[in-house]
Write a structure and sequence with these properties.
about 650 residues, alpha+beta, Gyrase A, domain 2, 4 domains, eleven-stranded mixed beta sheet, four-stranded mixed beta sheet, binds zinc ion
Length: about 650
């Protein structure tokens, strides 16, 4: 048994993939995101009654009871009254349902005879209606599992749901959402918690991603696939991590979560060793301690009318500075709670003191006022009294949880694979049937028709890429796993003169190397790539110019390839123009060539390519250079 087996690690995945359908799930609007100025802005205060909320989590409720305003941005031409909740939803989008049913068929899941759209209550304002529409498309039956070398991972449910509105900004009093994303069809595949290691989690996610891509009809680019990961250890708790945007990050997220839970168990054991059985909850006003402080943050906070409020953490000395994940200490977890519940900017604690201009004598005085012993820590917050009080109460709650190890939480993924506290784990939220949408009967004919349309499996594609397109096995495998799989197939099938090897290497290697350079490569439109490979096939652009053109296309996705080629001076040269350039170089280097003979080829070639790179294929330059040098040598310089 490996280390994860011994820890009783269990992981379940929930993959959300946006579909690239013509229109949204419950209206005829296109599924496009926009960055231009919105045409319409309106404000709502969403106020469902408590009974409607059911088992909604307390944190969200707290947020909500503060009466935050929700501002929605809309477009007259690409959003409609449905997204604004001014008109009932239209019938479920057939195209999206077909895609979801195809996924279900590919995963051997069991499709019910009737599909009922449900309302799932959401209260964070991300939907104008106050709920999200979702439908179970299939349940994992006995045959529905993803095979993996560490054992099969069962599929639990496959749902089709509407994506939420896009959060644009948030302040204390309002949240701004854009309605362009609201209603884009999302397919959600949930697995059972059968995954036993970080690597297996990653493999299963990649395998699901591959199935989506093989099917086509899915959106690509950052934010179009999102995964939630449930991680639990036998002695830990079930922690739900939201919003991992890169499949490649999954193993790291799981690994770091295991590390975090183990550290929290260490803290629990240490607290037990120190005989700590409870956490004091007395919040003390210690503003007096800091009345002459040299700390700018503290003095400015006080000047603005804030107070310094503190709480003693008996037995916690040294534990707040303990690192749980790279760059994230137990003190960081406490800060996350304080920010989430008290809306404060940050916290101070004695494990990091003296610092921030706070002196050792101020720390001593603080500890004295709070009655701290040598094993005790203290946390303080500088803010309005009410906010500081809420923040410290949340910290006390979190510290009480530390006595038991790992709290049940919903956490959010950071880009580096670490996670931060988001909210308590909600109970199962209440669902209601969506009475505005008729239940859909799934006919046998429909299933039969979809079965016939099912795409080739990844294995069949691999074979085709090697045998029909002449790709090496390695390149073919990369392509089958690639984000650009469908793009590759569409380009190769619509431009018969294009070389599949060049298309594949461009979409794989050039793509990745540009991405590593930080080029926003996802911006490039499919139509631009088609234009580029068409130009390449016709010889009006050189292979060497591809990276530069792609870079330009990423910066200016609306520009035409031919325009960019003109601007960059990348139009290919005629053979006559190339010959002229080569002749000039040869003439300038006559003596060198005559004295070195064929050995001068490399030097001349280098000079020629420095002038011609991107304007003509290196192969052609090479031919001309060779020919001209041979001519010169034959003539002996006369
Ligand atoms: Zn609409």
């Amino acid at each position: 048994m490996n280390v994860y087996g011994a820890l009783g690690l269990k992981v379940g995945l929930e993959l959300h993939q946006q579909l690239n359908t013509k229109s949204k799930l419950f209206c005829d609007c296109p599924t496009e995101l926009r960055d231009d100025e919105p045409h319409v802005v309106f404000k709502r205060f969403l106020r469902p009654t408590r009974s409607e909320l059911g088992a909604v989590d307390e944190a969200a409720l707290l947020e909500y009871e503060k009466g935050k305003a929700y501002i929605y941005q809309a477009y007259v031409d690409t959003t409609c009254l449905v997204e604004m909740d001014e008109e009932p939803p239209h019938q479920l989008n057939d195209e999206a349902l077909d895609v979801a049913l195809e996924i279900a068929l590919m995963l051997n899941a069991e499709i019910p005879d009737v599909i009922q759209v449900m309302r799932k209550v959401v209260i964070d304002g991300s939907n104008t209606t106050g709920f999200q529409r979702t439908a179970v498309i299939a349940l994992g039956g006995p045959c529905s599992a993803i095979d993996d070398l560490e054992g099969p991972v069962r599929v639990q449910t496959i749902c089709l749901e509407e994506d939420a509105a896009r959060k644009i900004s948030e302040t204390e009093s309002e949240v701004v959402f854009r309605l362009d994303r609201l209603g884009i069809p999302l397919i959600e595949v949930s697995t059972a918690p059968d995954i036993k290691s970080p690597e297996q989690a990653q493999r299963v996610a990649l395998r699901l991603g591959q199935l989506f891509r093989v099917l086509g009809k899915v959106k690509r680019g950052l934010g179009t696939i999102r995964q939630d990961i449930n991680v639990s250890l036998e002695k830990g708790a079930k922690v739900e991590i939201k919003g991992v945007q890169e499949l490649e990050l999954i193993s790291k997220v799981v690994e770091l979560e295991v590390q975090r839970q183990l550290k929290l168990l260490e803290i629990r054991d240490e607290l037990a060793r120190r005989g700590v059985s409870d956490v004091d909850s007395e919040i003390v006003d210690v503003t007096q301690v800091f009345c002459n402080t040299k700390s700018k943050v503290v003095s400015q906070g006080i000047m603005k009318g804030g107070k310094v409020m503190a709480v003693r953490l008996t037995g916690f000395a040294g534990l707040l500075g303990l690192e749980l994940q790279p760059g994230r200490k137990f003190g960081t977890e406490l800060k996350d709670y304080a920010v989430a519940w008290g809306k404060v900017k940050g916290i101070f604690h004695t494990d990091e003191m003296p610092a921030y201009g706070i002196s050792a004598s101020e720390v001593e005085e603080l500890k004295r006022v709070l009655g701290c012993g040598p094993q005790d820590a203290a946390v303080f917050v500088v803010d309005e009294e009410d906010k500081a009080g809420k923040a410290l109460k949340a910290i006390v709650r979190r510290c009480k949880d530390a006595l038991n190890g790992v709290p049940d939480e919903t956490r959010a993924a950071n880009p580096d694979g670490t996670t931060r506290y988001m909210r308590p784990r909600p109970g199962a939220s209440r669902m209601y049937p969506e009475t505005d949408v008729r239940p859909i009967i799934v006919t046998e004919d429909r299933i039969k028709r979809l079965r016939e349309l099912l795409p080739e499996t990844p294995e069949q594609k691999l074979k085709k890429f090697v045998e029909k397109y002449g790709l090496s096995r390695d390149l073919a495998q990369l392509m089958v796993n690639s984000y650009n799989l469908n793009l590759f197939e569409r380009i190769v099938s619509s431009i018969p003169q294009a070389s599949p090897i060049v298309v594949a290497t461009t979409l794989e290697y050039t793509w990745k190397s540009l991405k590593r350079e930080g080029v926003p490569i996802e911006n490039i439109k499919e139509s631009s790539l088609l234009e580029l490979f068409e130009a390449l096939a016709q010889g009006s652009v050189a292979k060497e110019a591809i990276p530069e053109i792609m870079k330009a296309l990423a910066e200016r996705p609306e520009a035409h390839v031919s325009t960019l080629m003109d601007e960059l001076g990348l139009k290919t040269m005629s053979p006559k123009e190339v010959q002229d350039v080569v002749d000039r170089i040869i003439n300038d280097n006559r003596d060198l060539i005559l004295s070195r003979g064929d050995k001068a080829l490399k030097i001349v070639m280098g000079k020629a390519m420095s002038m011609l790179r991107g304007k003509v294929e290196g192969r052609i330059v090479n031919e001309i250079v060779k020919e001209r040098i041979a001519q010169l040598l034959r003539s002996g310089g006369r």
